[in-house]
Amino acid sequence: MKTKTGPLSRLSIEYLWGLVVIAGIFIFVNTHPIRPFDFWWHIAAGRDLALTGHIPTVDNYSQTMSGTPYPAYQTYWLMEWTLYQIYRLGGAPFIILFQSLIVTTTYALTLWLAGQRSGNWRSAALATLFAAALGINDWNVRPQTITFLIAAIFLNIIHMYHNRPRPWLLLSFPIGMLVWVNSHGTFPLGLALIGLWGADEAWNALTTRQWRSVRAPAIALSAAALACLLNPRGIDIVQYLTFMITNPVIQNLIAEWGPPTFDTLVGKLFFMGLLLSATILALTPKRPTLSTLLAFLAFGALGLKTRRGVIWFGLVIGPMLAEHITYIGISARQYIDTLGHRRSDNIKGIPSPGIQVVLNAVIVGVIMLGALSSLPWFKDLWPLSPEKTGLVSTETPVKATEFLLRENLPGPVFHAMSFGSYLIWAAQPQYPVFVDPRIELYPPELWLDYLSISAATAGWEEQLQAYGIRTLMLSPQQQAGLVAATHKSGQWQEVYRDSTSVILIRTD
Asked: Which residues does 47 contact at the CB level (< 8 Å), separation at least 6?
């Protein structure tokens, strides 16, 4: 007589490892507020696109570079429009939930791929945790998040096709690339993933003389490359990417474009991850494939060059490591067995299968309850640190901007760069920004003026006067010297202050 086996009877502690990792990611992103630097100007551009039906081509938000061509809108337009529509539909809670679903699905696919490659869900969970640790610094709401999901889909499709070739799977690559190229400028990384697959198949073909296996990645790469041309700039998008990579202002002013260092958490995690990965690949009894070695070298180099590359190293290498972690574990167990230290089967204290299933079900229930209670609408229930309370980060000058608009203070306004993104969203067209996180829009000399004024160096008031500035909206943390200098000057009157912002107006 057959015993019926339902879902609960198949619930093993092994599966809970992965569930805990994925639920932890979901809870973390749900309880992470929207940070101000990039999100707000992106949805402002999405708003303009939705209202006019045209992708903006020039800057309409700043007082300093108004009318200057700005091709980045044509790179991000699809996700800008999408984020704006989601925000319009449900505000900050919907945006956070959308972000959480994208990030969680990305790492769920990473877990699935790691499990398929390793055949061991514990190894898969450890590899996914490794990938998540390297990516946690890049989970803020911004257009590039969708690219992580597309990359995870590509990696899974490559594995599926390798195990069971089905031609229709190849459609995923041009479709995914079409979304990628119209959402963010990192689309060459998608081509690199397909290229790694092709290199691996070509290497295998050299030894087997079976060249048919190269056909699929060649078709996928060609179709994906052609899909990259289906963007508002066409082939000229390559020029924009070259400009971004070589722009000295971006390289020198944006910390995340610089290489990782031991002074930051992301740097420490990356260097430890790089060393750990190299150690695992060196010790594994299974010889790494060519694609694994190339991926380690290429994405390791990307991570060494820029902090933005750290998350990509984790996403690509994580599933590959899972397979080798499993082989190392098997070898370790075999070694122990040879020493004659097998444990007796009569170990006391192990729950019966029935009790274990019930305990696992209870654990799953607790995890799911925690994930449900982490939804943005229930965020007040969590004992979070002050910087994580609220749906919008405390770094965002929401109340100061409301005061600025309500009191109709005189413009132009000089403000902290970090405030620029929110001012673009909430204070246009009344208050064009001085500078904002669209770093490449502004020339080096303007950034030098901004830094000089913010540091209150000699002649700062003359510089403000040359720009016609009548109101200052400053960060007491980032521009403490300038705040102090304005009080000594006698030419500025403080009219507003909170923990995030100080507003002063010129008195003469």
From this structure: 84
Within a domain: residue 18? no
Q: Are 253 and 454 in contact (CB under 8 A)?
A: no
Residue with tokens 């420490």: 268
Name 141's Cβ contacts closer than 8 Å, sequence gap at least 6.
34, 35, 38, 39, 83, 95, 96, 99
**Smallest Cα–Cα separation from 422: which of 43, 33, 47, 51?**
43
- Residue 236 pLDDT: 86
Reference 113, options 123, 100, 103, 102; nearest CA is: 123
Number of domains making up the chain: 2
Does residue 334 sit in the same domain as residue 403?
no
State the Rg of the chain over Cα.
26
Per the CB < 8 A criterion, the answer to whether 107 and 25 are in contact is yes
Residue 336: predicted pLDDT? 52
Q: What pLDDT was estimated at residue 79?
A: 96
Q: Tell me which of 288, 308, 338 is where a domain ends.
A: 338
Does residue 368 fall inside a structural domain? no
Q: Which of 321, 338, 355 is the last residue of a domain?
A: 338
Q: Are residues 309 and 449 both part of a single domain?
A: no
Q: What local confidence, expressed as pLDDT, does residue 11 receive?
A: 60
Which of 252, 265, 266, 259 shows the shortest CA–CA distance to 306? Answer: 259
Cα dist from 97 to 32, 142, 180, 356, 391, whole Å: 10, 13, 21, 33, 11
Supply the pLDDT for residue 322. Answer: 92
- Same domain, yes or no, for 330 and 247? yes
What pLDDT shows up at residue 5? 47
Domain, as residue range, for 422: 398-506
Same domain as 472, residue 331? no
- What is d(CA 179, CA 461) in angstroms, rounded to the nearest whole number? 47
Q: SS3 of 190, please?
A: helix
Residues of the chain with pLDDT under 50: 1-9, 335, 342-348
- In this structure, are residues 441 and 65 in contact, taking their beta carbons and an 8 Å threshold? yes
Task: Tell me how far apart the 2 most distant CA atoms of the chain are, in Å.
Answer: 95
The number of residues in the chain equals 508
Question: What is the distance in angstroms between the CA of the first residue and the CA of the last residue of the chain?
Answer: 95
Residues 141, 231 within the same domain? yes
Helix (H, G, I), strand (E, B) or coil at 474: strand
